[in-house]
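The protein record filed here.
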Amino acid sequence: MLNDIYNKRIIELAGNIPRLGRLPDPHASATAHSKLCGSTVKVDLKMEGPVVTDFAHDVKACALGQASSSIMASHVVGSTADELRELRETVRKMLKENGGPPQGKWADIALLEPVRDYKARHASTLLTFDAVVDAIGQIEAKAKQPAQA
């Protein structure tokens, strides 16, 4: 039942999203959009080497997209590129392949586990993870380009 996924904690997370807005000079920006529900998440990211040093996002999403964005914003600074790629894959498997939720600082994502039974909600739940990994890829691609003389 939909009440399982829109529980009190999800609504609290959705109503208290940290780091809202945009960064003035991000190293990369990425947007993820769900055609199914119209939810959109735009992220701005700064990194030093493989570590996220700053983050902001503009979240126009349903409560599930807002809740996952809230969890991301609470823990992304200080996380590494590899950790965030692995996180996205763990969440994807949790929703689509009955995988377990992440542990440690990302354990709150377990609150989104009931979404597994609602395929139409998977895309909005994954938006923030997809956008962050996209932005990381952009930053890494720029770092590999030879410096312009």
